[in-house]
Amino acid sequence: MAEGDSRSWLRKLSRELGHMAPYLSSSIERQSRKIEGQLSYDREAHAFKRVNIYIEKGLAGHRQTLTKIVGVVHNQQNGEIDEYRIHCFAFGSAEDELIRAPGPVLVRNPTMAKGAVDVLSAISGDDAPQGQSTLTQLGRPVSGNDLVVVICRGRDSVSLAEPAAGKIEKRKRTIWIYLAGGGVEIETGLVLRRRLRNPETTADASDAPSREAARSGSTDGEGDCE
Questions:
Q1: How many domains does the chain have?
Q2: If 152 and its partner were Cys, which of 24, 56, 59, 133 is the partner (CB 3.0–4.6 Å)?
Q3: For 189-213, what is each residue's pLDDT tens digit?
Q4: At residue 158, what are phi and psi to the nearest 5 degrees?
């Protein structure tokens, strides 16, 4: 499936985001109907608190696809919360160093969301890694209400290492997007985690914490931060 033939994977991405998005208490200021001059704040938003996008090096040439990905994410957020932040990171350098954007992209409208595409293209660049990339860290505290998106060349182009592996394995709200062979494929984190797990780790030992985290609604052991 060519990147231009995007209807199928865009629908799947939109559907998965809708399933994953939590319900947040949103502080919306509006005039109270009961008491003059008093503001009410009651609203529940079906959206992610923050968006964290990790892109493999060498994917700057996929700008059209990156624009569509960010657009679908924004469609999930749009109308639900007034503003949110997109944190952008790149991985796959020769030293397995996580490259951080200077700061998060503050989004209040579609035009501001496109700013994240500029950042992702800039930090990813055109030089693809030689061999497999390793995502070793997430770069910031990620809460259970955040979305994690990992964009990479293909299923076999990336591996996970600690501490990122343990944190991603626990998360329900993780999307993997593969851009291999001129096509786009979507996979969720819980589907992928068993294949990426260190083969020396026994299934029983590594599955137990993840099952427990899923039942308890784990926040990856990290608090919220801006």
A1: 1
A2: 56
A3: 665 555 555 444 333 433 433 333 3
A4: -135, 145
CB atoms within 10 A of CB 12: 16
For 198, the domain range is 7-208
- Beta strand residue intervals within the chain, DSSP E: 23-25, 30-31, 39-40, 44-46, 51-56, 84-91, 99-100, 105-107, 133-135, 147-152, 158-160, 174-178, 185-188
Tokens of 139: 């770069």
Q: Is residue 216 part of a domain?
A: no
Q: What is the pTM of this model?
A: 0.78
- pLDDT tens, position by position, 73-125: 999 999 888 899 999 999 998 888 999 999 999 999 999 999 999 999 999 99
Q: How many residues are there in the chain?
A: 226
Residue 1 resides in a domain = no
